[in-house]
Amino acid sequence: MPTPQTLYEKIWNAHVVEQRDDGTCLIFIDRHLVHEVTSPQAFEGLRVAGRRVRRPDLTLAVPDHNLPTTARLDGNGQHVPIADPESAQQLEALERNAPEFGIAYINATDIKQGIVHVVGPEQGFSLPGTTIVCGDSHTACHGGLGALAFGIGTSEVEHVLATQTLQLTRSKSMEVRVEGELGPGVSAKDVVLHITGVLGASGGTGHVIEYTGAVIRALSIEGRLTISNMAIEHGARAGLVAPDDTTFAYLKGRPMAPKGAQWDAAVAYWRSLATDTAAVYDKVVTINAADIAPSVTWGTSPEDVLPITGIVPDPSTFADPSKQEAAKKSLAYMGLTPGTAMTDIEVQNVFIGSCTNSRIEDLRAAAAILKGRKKAANVKWAIVVPGSGLVKHQAEAEGLHRIFIDAGLEWREPGCSACLGMNPDKVPAGERCASTSNRNFVGRQGPGARTHLVSPAMAAAAAVTGKLTDVRELMN
Amino acid sequence: MKPISSVIGRAYPLGLKNIDTDIIIPAAWLKTISRSGLGKGAFQSLREVSGNVFDDPAYAGAPILIAGDNFGCGSSREHAAWAMADLGISAVIAPSFSDIFSGNAFKNGLLAIVLPQDAIDRLMEVAQTDSIHIDLETQTVTTPFQDRFAFEIDPFRKHCLMNGVDEIGLTLKSSDAISTYETKISAQQPWLTPNIA
Known about the structure:
The structure holds two protein chains of two kinds. Chain A is an alpha/beta fold. Chain A has three domains: 7-168, Aconitase, domain 3 (2-Layer Sandwich); 172-242 and 271-291, Aconitase, Domain 2 (3-Layer(aba) Sandwich); 295-474, Aconitase, domain 3, CATH 3.30.499. Chain A has helices at residues 7-14, 40-49, 85-100, 116-123, 154-163, 188-199, 214-218, 221-229, 245-251, 260-271, 321-334, 360-370, 389-397, 400-406, 456-465; strands spanning 16-19, 25-28, 31-34, 59-61, 104-105, 131-134, 148-151, 165-168, 172-179, 207-212, 238-240, 283-288, 295-297, 305-307, 349-352, 381-384, 410-411, 432-435, 450-453. In chain A, strands 5-4-3-6-7 form a five-stranded parallel β-sheet. Chain A starts with 6 loop residues before the first helix and ends in an 11-residue tail after the last helix. Chain B is of the alpha/beta class. Chain B has one domain (6-172): Aconitase, domain 4 (Alpha-Beta Barrel), CATH 3.20.19.10. Chain B contains eight helices and eight strands; from the N terminus they run E-E-H-H-E-H-E-H-E-H-E-E-E-H-H-H. Chain B has helices at residues 21-24, 44-47, 79-86, 99-107, 117-127, 155-163, 167-172, 175-188, and strands at residues 6-9, 11-13, 64-66, 91-94, 111-114, 132-135, 140-142, 148-150. In chain B, the strands form two sheets. Chain B has a four-stranded antiparallel β-sheet. The longest helix of chain B has 14 residues, at 175-188. Chain B starts with 5 loop residues before the first strand and ends in a 9-residue tail after the last helix. Classes of the chains: A alpha/beta, B alpha/beta. The interface between A and B is large, with 85 and 61 residues.
């Protein structure tokens, strides 16, 4: 009888090209997503060494990080130039490099353009059982489809372009099992924030995490992508959800997914990938859904998570002295006083978007709260940034954009936007943002910006009341 | 990559945990299409605070950084390793590193040395006044006070660092094996090639 294997082991073993005596493996990469920020130096490296891209047919380039999310075409259908010369130069570099190396390129005004991690699944480029890399740590996202997907640095981008492989050592495996049923107002984002709070920012380091249990099985693909997206926030380079009928229904008919008899063969293979009953993970963590409330971060690490009903913690109550020190610094940066109820914290900005929460289901959840309501007067800036042109199109077909605009929110073009402060969408210094993005790091949304990570429904609730709010109070 | 066998000199006693790559190099610096010149933006938010270790003349030009748990977490930006190298840092010592940062550091000949917290505490103390010696061959960190801490390193990474191996060049020697794999997979799983066009 073959040795029982986890989903991770099955995908890993299927991609070993060579194994060296020291355990390092040459792993084949099935899919490579390229964006403008982490690729210019890699293409330059290829050029200097006179190397070509080995498999342009497995590579897809899309700009997302730098792009302004304001209108890209003017009233006459002409391209609006990008004001920041450095951003413009980086985008031009990708526009030049992609055709030079024979790589398919989705341009900024194509309806298919969007955040790489939204585009990959949406196009059926990302498939279960494949290895997917991108020069972006949130590549873990694609694990929601059952792909072994992880972020890489620019040297590795160059390595994959040149060889379609990476030199890797096998990670440990961890199962995070979420049992039970989610309560009202509790979404996939709350689940992953809660997991990050439980594991800590480095709890998954050295591991690939498989998310299992009734809660995960009941989630849509959008929800699973949200969870796997933030695997990196608890230290795991990759997250995985075993592919099932939900996965296959999501992928069937997508433009780059297999068709006809090929589709049937693919599904049969994907079904074989589930972790064997007798397989053993290196570590298992079990979480009860009943313990998960709508969640929010209070500090400057994604592990600083509280239920919305919580109060700002007192650093002296942390057992670990280094955590006490970190909490003091976090609270000083965040301008918060221990003992303050989270629901008493006012926000001046609301951001609904990012590779974590910009899919159609996220926009529907936000719109359900905003429908018939207005944003609070103290909320100066509130934007909704769809994850792709296709998400934008779908949302407009459903009339969601009307709900956002009527509530006083701005409806933008797709891109990474205010998640990372490298395009014009930034949160002003000293101001707070209820944000559906993935990182509350110091300066992440702009120098001095104070980020509170929340779900789309919670961000919408904050927009309505002008402070962090328990979304359950606005439901019915 | 230049071969590296040891790093000797003063160390910035930073010591904080969860130093993410947004702190090492903020996003505003990622718009470059070059690898150089990022030192100016390194640790920007920390350097805005007066009395920070990076601008303390006692540590000027220090080749080593001592940090807390989970160094380099967050974004995969290799700019973090480039910025540190540009600042003159050749090695970081911490109780743990994020997986992506430790890979990026390795690719740039920047040593990411893992030592337990008590060793870090001792080195933070020594760093106030004296130099630290990292020897890759013997896998040890030593001080002028007879401290001696052994560290683990992946043998492949050690070999590449000590010999300045071009990893892409090394992998390209396996081109035949890659071709064999591609042939086998395209026969077994023909649906794997995406319909890009």
